[in-house]
């Protein structure tokens, strides 16, 4: 009898799967809307806490947005061999292991990290949305099996750093959004495999330094967003290494220290045929204090003229000081010589009296 009970339990578990396999086109979760003609299952905002069962095995798009799902496991999609697009934004997911998809939307959840085997089975994934989560770091293992990924959205997280090889497997990536994170540096080597990248959005981070070779591999980059960071100065050679057909740069809302060097760098960038500072007229000086709030573009070459004038004034002042010191030294020397010629010692006076 115990064996019979176990068999009954197994049968009860397997029956929905068998029915799904045989009559999949007729099955639909009671809380969802199913569209047989297009194999779409709409389970949006149904208060679900887990992935529902009895989903047609022919389903290729499953929308579970706006629910209360906290965990997603591989077993949640047993039998859904045709599933290509999974939309799970606005849930409470903190654990997940999805597989066999082309598009995965996990935005607006509570993910603090991606497991190292997160990408296992996601060989066909082309678009991954992870925006508005709590991610703090991206390591070198989490995305290593996503070789076909083309779009990756990591915006609105708490990411402070990327492993140097975190993106090394994403050689087909064309769109990368890292806006509204906490990155503070763009390092050499982080984007070495992203030669097909067309859009790189780094707006509103804490980036204060862009290393010299960090942008060099980006041969197809058409848009680079660096607006709203902590850049005070940049190097011309860093951007000159962007050997692209045409790249638009977004650089405003940074605490720029406006001086002759900065003006020269932007002047050089604006004269490079394939580089375009899209918001050059919106670049505002943060320092020095007397220029705070001034528009860099409105100064033309004034900063360099002012700096040259200051250098000339200082040079002339130093030269005058040196000349004054030399004149004073020569005057003192002559005075000493004159005083010696009219000074008589007692011995010299005795000698003169003797001679007389």
UniProtKB/TrEMBL annotation:
Q: Please list which residues make up the signal peptide.
A: 1-24
- Transmembrane stretches, start-end: 309-327
Q: What is its main location?
A: membrane
What InterPro entries does UniProt report for this protein, alphabetically? Cys-rich_flank_reg_C, KCNMA1_auxiliary, Leu-rich_rpt, Leu-rich_rpt_typical-subtyp, LRR_dom_sf, LRRNT
Q: Could you tell me which Pfam families the record lists for this protein? A: LRR_8
List locations, semicolon-separated: Cell membrane
This protein's record includes keyword Iron-sulfur: no
Q: How does it sit in the membrane?
A: Single-pass membrane protein
The LRRNT domain sits at: 27-61
What's any GO biological process attached to this entry? monoatomic ion transmembrane transport
Task: Give a Gene Ontology cellular component term annotated to this protein.
Answer: plasma membrane
User: In what residue span(s) does the LRRCT domain sit?
Assistant: 254-305
Which UniProt keyword terms apply here? Cell membrane, Disulfide bond, Ion channel, Ion transport, Leucine-rich repeat, Membrane, Repeat, Signal, Transmembrane, Transmembrane helix, Transport
Q: How does it assemble?
A: Interacts with KCNMA1.
The identity of this protein, by name, is: LRRCT domain-containing protein
- Source organism: Oreochromis aureus
